[in-house]
Structure formats: C-alpha cells, structure tokens
Amino acid sequence: MKTLALVMIVKNEEKHLARCLQSVQPIVDEMVIVDTGSTDRTKDIAYSFGAKVFDFDWINDFSAARNYALMQSMCDWNLVLDADEYVVNDCKSIIRHFIETNERTIGRIRMVNEFVQNSEKRYAQSYLSRLLPKGVTYVGKIHEQVDSPFPRKNVDVEVYHDGYVYANKTERNLQLLLEELKQHPNDDYVLYQVGKQYKLLQQFNMAEKYFEESYHLAPSHAWYRHSLIIDYLYTIIATRSFEKGLQLIEMEQERLNDSPDFHFACGLFYMDAIFCHMDRYAHFFPFIERCFTRCLEIDETEKYDRVRGTGSFLAAYNLGVFYEVTGQVEKAIYFYKQAAHEEYEKAIERLNMLLKP
After folding, report:
1. Residue 66 belongs to a domain with what CATH number?
2. 316 lies in a domain?
3. pLDDT tens-place values along the chain, 357 residues long
4. Which residue, 338, 346, 275, 351, is CA-closest to 311?
5. Residue 29 falls within a domain, yes or no?
6. d(Cα 120, Cα 265) in Å, to the nearest integer?
C-alpha cells in the first residue's frame, strides 16, 4: 500500500496550524513540518500532532525550503499544504484511490481562496498541483511551481485558504518577486505575479504596467493566462484605461467566450465606462445585459479558475440591478430572487425593498 505524507513549511503559525493538521490527520501516514524560524508556539503545536519537525534557515527562497521539506519525507506521495489552508471535504478514500492507481502523475487539488472585494467576502476557486509523487520538487524563489513533466490530473480534494483575509504578506512577496525579476526580466509568470501583488496593494497603475508586459509575453497556452486576463481587466477598470480595455476584450472575447469570469468582468467594465463617459460609451449599454446573461448561460464551470458566483448568483444580482435601473421591475425581481435563492445578501435586501407594501 502506498504511503502519504503531509509536507509543510511554517513560521509563526500558531493561530492556524492546529486547524490544518486536524483536517489532514485522518488522511496522511506522517506529517513533515519544516520551521523557518518561529518564535511562537508553532513547533509545540506540530509536536502535539505527532509531526516530525525540522529546522531550516530562511534564505528568501520558498522552493529551497519546500524541497528541503520534501527530502525529509519517507513516503511514496506528498501532500503539500500551507498552515492557513485546511481540507474541508471527506476525501480520504479519494486520495487513497488516486495514489494507488497513479504513479508518474501530479494531483491537482481544488483550492478555495477567501478574499474581500467591495466589503464582501468572495471565494476564488482554482486547481493547484499539490499531490506529488516522491522525487518531484519545486522551482522559483516565490510563487514556486512544481518542476515536473508529469501530467496533471484533478482530484476531488477541496482545501480552503483564508490567508488573504487574516494576514498581509504582500509587501514581503513583492520584494522577493522584484528580486527574481532582476534575474529574469522577461519571465511572463513572474511579471504576472508582480502585477498581482501591486493589485493587492491597490497600486493599480503599477499593476497595469506589469500585467500588460506579462500579457504580451505569455504564450496562448499558459496555464495562468485566463487569470492574468481577468486580473488585467479588473485593473484596467480601476485605472479607467477604457480604450485599452476595449482592445483587450476584442482580442479575447472569442477565446474566452465560455468563461463566466471574463463576461462578468466585461459587464462591470461596460458599466464603469458608461458611468464615467456617457457621451463616449453609451452605445455599449446593451452589452451590460448581454454579458451578465452570458454568465448565467455558461453557469459555474470547472474549466477555468474562477470566483464562485460569477456564473450564478453574482451575475443574477447584477442583472437585477440592470433591470431595476432601467425600470423593468418584474425582471429585476426575477433575477434578485434567483440570487437570493443562493442566499446572496445584497439580492435579499433589494428584494425586500421592491416587495415592501
């Protein structure tokens, strides 16, 4: 029978570590935790779960730390998690079946990232390569990537991550990425990650610069290209670079016609463009309805990384707003009800207002 280890690198994670270890304890055969300099109770918590704990001097290189941790594992397979991540579904039999029936394959688990947008909690879903056969390692100082030619296969393992909400590591990440960019100035993926950090810091002009560079360099088959385009479009909305946005939409609308996130971002783009320059962009008004309707036609897809709701309740709510603003109250109520059925608070509030005697 194949064996499985949890492999982690940690530093000062006493607030999150127990939750993570408790979620995987029934699944794994051993826990390997590499500490990079904790000064709190992190190591004590790890020991209390029976983990093997090792020390590693931090050298500003995530791959070096992860690869050292992987070397300490004695198992056939390794599940790589961070302390602010935790398994939420009953997946022991699923993982066991995967590691018994696959060898030279990388398992991609479903990661759900909690973040805040417009004062609301949102959940972005993506598949990440985290279930690794022994011998597979990482490259890249930060936002490290699995370095393997093995094929990737999705595994029905769902992990939640709330680190974007309760911790701010953006400044640190940005400095490491900029250092890496000095060595590889034309690395499209690093350029994209730099843009993401500036976007998180709400420095949108800088984010737009790096997203634009990455967009022009990234090959059409790049696994992160869809996310890059969505992030780039939201940044363009923030900087109000509407002409650039129109060009981007025209370039990508055929390729991303089956992406709810793309059409959702386009709908918001047209709304902002019209609001800011009614005289110049008023002719795009029907496109708002068209974009959010297309989101609902596609529904919630597993094809792309996505924000939950762009193919369902978020799109329905925005259609409700569109119809309410244009005086089509019955249609507005219909779509508000659709969003409210999925317990979307804003839709419930609008329904209560419209249906009030």
Report:
1. 3.90.550.10
2. no
3. 999 999 999 999 999 999 999 999 999 999 999 999 999 999 999 999 999 999 999 999 999 999 999 999 999 999 999 999 999 999 999 999 999 999 999 999 999 998 887 778 899 999 999 999 999 999 988 889 999 999 999 999 999 998 665 556 788 889 989 999 998 999 999 999 999 999 999 999 999 999 999 999 999 999 999 999 999 999 999 999 999 999 999 999 999 999 999 999 999 999 999 999 999 999 999 999 999 999 999 999 989 999 999 999 999 999 999 999 999 999 999 999 999 999 999 999 999 999 987
4. 338
5. yes
6. 17
